[in-house]
Amino acid sequence: MDTSAPPRSAFPVVRAVPTRWADNDHYGHVNNVVHYALFDTTVNGYLIEATATDIRELPAIGLVVETSCRYLAPVSFPDVLHVGLATERVGERSITYLLGLFREDEQRPSAVGRFVHVYVDRAEHTSCAVPEEIRRAVADLQLRDG
């Protein structure tokens, strides 16, 4: 296990996400594409709950422009995974999230991801500021000292 990856305690938000039978690939572990779906679901699910609004209806929307994932240990169905969420950077027009994927009660992640939202006007798709609702929702999401 990579000891340089942030532990569970470093993430201010941790959301439980059960795996599904269909998440396993031919090799018996959760396929890499599922990790990205879990990250996307965690970020947007958190934003919807934290803003108490349908973020798709805001005048500005966050488009994913960059993702990455370091796979540190396999996970598989029927694991219940816990996805840690933190901000790495909150800029004027973008937010960079750091995510940790944890099995059950493990403190070290099975995977660490990065996810960048750039905000654009919903109608014109031109660059614009992060909406205030979103900015307030992520204000306390900085990665903690683990």
Number of domains: 1
Q: The CATH topology, please?
A: Thiol Ester Dehydrase, Chain A
CATH homologous group name? Hotdog Thioesterase
What's the helix count? 2
The second-level CATH architecture is: Roll
Proportion of strand residues: 25-35%
Helix/strand/pairing category: alpha+beta
Shape: globular
Description:
The chain is an alpha+beta fold and 146 residues long. It has a single domain (8-137), classed as Thiol Ester Dehydrase, Chain A, CATH 3.10.129. It has helices spanning 32-51, 132-137; strands spanning 13-18, 60-71, 80-90, 94-103, 111-121. It is globular, with a radius of gyration of 15 Å. The protein starts with 12 loop residues before the first strand and ends in a 9-residue tail after the last helix.
Summarize the structure.
The protein has 146 residues and is α+β, with helices and mostly antiparallel strands. It has helices spanning 32-51, 132-137; strands spanning 13-18, 60-71, 80-90, 94-103, 111-121.
Features:
2 helices; globular; 5 strands; about 35% strand; alpha+beta; Thiol Ester Dehydrase, Chain A; five-stranded antiparallel beta sheet; about 150 residues
Write the SSE topology.
Blueprint: E1 13-18, H1 32-51, E2 60-71, E3 80-90, E4 94-103, E5 111-121, H2 132-137
Antiparallel strand pairs: 1-3, 2-5, 3-4, 4-5
